[in-house]
Amino acid sequence: MSDFNRKLVFTDGTEYPGYGFGAEKDAVCEIVFNTSMAGYQEIISDPSYTDQAIVMSYPLIGNYGITDEDFESRMLGLGALIVREVNESPSNFRFTRTLSELLEEYDVPGIYGVDTRKLVRSIRDIGSRKVLITDIGTDTKEAVRKLEDTELPHDAVRRCSSKKKWYSRTANHKYSVVAIDCGMKMNIVRELNRHGCNVTVVPFDTKPEEILAMNPDGLFISNGPGDPEDVPEVIETLKALRGKMPMFGICLGHQLIALSYGAKTYKLKFGHRGGNHPVKDLATGKIEITSQNHSYAVDDKTIEGTGLKVSHINLLDNTVEGLASEDGKVFSVQYHPESAPGPQDSTYLFNRFISNMS
Prior knowledge:
Layout: E1 6-10, E2 15-22, E3 27-34, H1 40-44, E4 52-56, E5 60-61, E6 80-82, E7 85-86, H2 99-105, E8 109-112, H3 116-126, E9 129-135, H4 140-149, H5 156-160, E10 166-168, E11 175-181, H6 186-194, E12 197-203, H7 208-213, E13 218-221, H8 232-241, E14 247-250, H9 252-261, E15 265-281, E16 287-298, E17 308-314, E18 320-325, E19 330-333, H10 348-357
Parallel strand pairs: 3-4, 4-6, 5-7, 6-8, 11-12, 11-13, 13-14, 14-19
Antiparallel strand pairs: 1-2, 1-9, 2-8, 3-9, 10-12, 15-16, 15-17, 17-18, 18-19
Helix pairs in contact: 8-9
């Protein structure tokens, strides 16, 4: 194989060489890893990854190509994709383009041939941090200087949220739901439709009085990227609407509900990303295998006195995975019950939302 032509550089000067694919450009991102064995298209089209460089721990990516029906969003917000081996000759009758073609189309740089096992261990040991993807010939000191001078953005939700209201209706609907879009996956909308809900998707900064004027049966707060404290607009909206309708939050929506009740959040060392996280439902004692994608968690020491209680915990690190209000009309989970692809253990949560609205 020819000589390396791209590399990753960290602020301590550590470098990981590889080969470029997708867009040929430099990018400074927050590096994270994902342990999923399938679903790379859904992962890279999930707006929750906005501005992040994703390291796939599974060694072969791209082998079934890209299909038009499987996007979770029509935008690719990720900063970069890092894999051990990329397949440019997919074997799938449904595929319409290769992974490299998709990244090039959306101006996203990729790098393959990297020692991803070593890189994932580095993220686990040191934590998520800034990384530069650049040409192999870039001077290391210059690369470190660029990393140190670049501040990661805090407006990811604003950039990936819907710019205007839109609708997803279903036949013979029973309920009407307003969904606050903080970077929502499309399979959440599809699940709500499958459960008999007409969905009105609104931008993240929609005012509470506008939501009330739609007279919804319930309010859904979506997943999304970044620090939940970067979107005070949603927190204030949830404070204003508390008690006026049932609420259900997923991922970032879970964190925003917690903040609106007065709890606090904190950043995890390397986050939870992948489809293999065991979560315990404290009400039933059942264990769910869940799909997750987040950098922040709710601080369990700040929940007491807020009116919320912990409903689910992560069995790997005991972090908070679910919250519910004492009246039972507001609840949230840190993981993705609509996971696509991924485990289907947690779809009952949509039934709980339906029950609250009924």
